[in-house]
Write a structure and sequence with these properties.
By secondary structure, the protein is of the alpha/beta class. It is about 35% helix and about 20% strand. It is built from nine helices and eleven strands. The two termini are about 30 Å apart. It binds zinc ion (2 copies).
Length: about 290
């Protein structure tokens, strides 16, 4: 049979690099996630457990990092005929520390790293506060941590994000505007205010200058927390203008959500102007058609 040499632009791949399992705050063991990914027809599944944080229960334990990676490697071997499985990590950037907080496991070889900010440093509280937690914690952070000045908190979050991109090395930025996660309930942020998009643009300029891809994350919308993807559509359009590549992920903590919102993510990416998204396989990161 004659082959015409299929262009990689014709290639389609089902991938997700932002997934959690029970090594951190996900509900399922890694093998269940793998089996579900195979059932759902994935070509590549990347595990991205939360990086260890001193004194926190929800991320990966520092002394379990090697076991985590080995478990993923064993599954990769066991299911190599069905799916490509990668061992990654979602690294938390903590602004009060000069570097990532727990480093003693960092000699472990990972396939990729997501850079995310979940916490900001509140001078008033004298501690970190999460912007990715329950509503009551967000209310406390705004009221007690920022004296009711939500704009200051939002600006702090984006300054922290920009610092992460400047300072650290990773493969793509996770859920850029996760700060809006509880906005639907609390209503502390009007995303249409000019100052807001201007602030976000300063971060996008850093991301663009550093050449780091950005995630289109479906986790907020399919769980009902947000009315738009991370990032919101006006931000995604600004990303496209700056030539920032995108990676689509669902941030699933339950394997049933491995591909939740993917059709919407592709639709929104195309609407913003994108024709390609980034995938990682044995040959490294590359762009393929959306
Ligand atoms: Zn995250
Ligand atoms: Zn995540």
């Amino acid at each position: 049979m004659a082959t015409t040499g299929q262009s990689f632009y014709d290639e389609t791949m089902k991938t997700n690099y932002h997934t959690h399992c029970n090594f951190c705050d996900g509900i399922a063991d890694p093998e269940t996630v793998v089996k579900t990914a195979i059932e759902k027809g994935f070509d590549v599944l990347g595990f991205s457990s939360h990086s260890p944080l001193e004194g926190e229960e929800w991320p990966l334990k520092a002394d379990e990092v090697e076991l985590y990676v080995q478990t993923i490697r064993d599954l990769a071997l066991k299911y190599r005929d069905d799916i490509l499985i990668l061992a990654g990590m979602e690294k938390d950037f903590i602004v009060s520390e000069p570097v990532w907080p727990v480093r003693r496991w960092e000699s472990v070889q990972l396939d990729y790293v997501i850079g995310s900010v979940h916490m900001v440093w509140s001078e008033k509280l004298g501690r970190l506060g999460t912007v990715d937690g329950p509503v009551d914690e967000m209310v406390e952070l705004i009221e007690k941590g920022y004296g009711g000045n939500a704009r200051r908190l939002v600006e702090d979050y984006y300054d922290t994000l920009a610092l992460m991109v400047e300072r650290e090395t990773f493969d793509f930025v996770g859920h850029l505007d996760v700060i809006k996660k509880r906005n639907k309930v609390i209503g502390f942020l009007d995303e249409s205010q000019p100052w807001y998009l201007e602030k976000v643009k300063t971060v996008l300029d850093v991301i663009s200058r550093k050449g780091v891809p950005l995630e289109i994350n479906t986790g907020g919308i399919f769980r009902g927390a947000t009315d738009d993807l991370y990032p919101s559509q006006p931000i995604l359009k600004e990303c496209f203008k700056r030539g920032i590549p995108v990676v689509i992920g669902s941030d699933s903590h339950d394997p049933n959500h491995l591909d939740s919102g993917f059709d919407l993510a592709r639709e929104k990416a195309k609407e913003a102007g994108y024709r390609e998204h980034m995938v990682l396989d044995r040959s490294g990161w590359r762009s393929i058609k959306i």
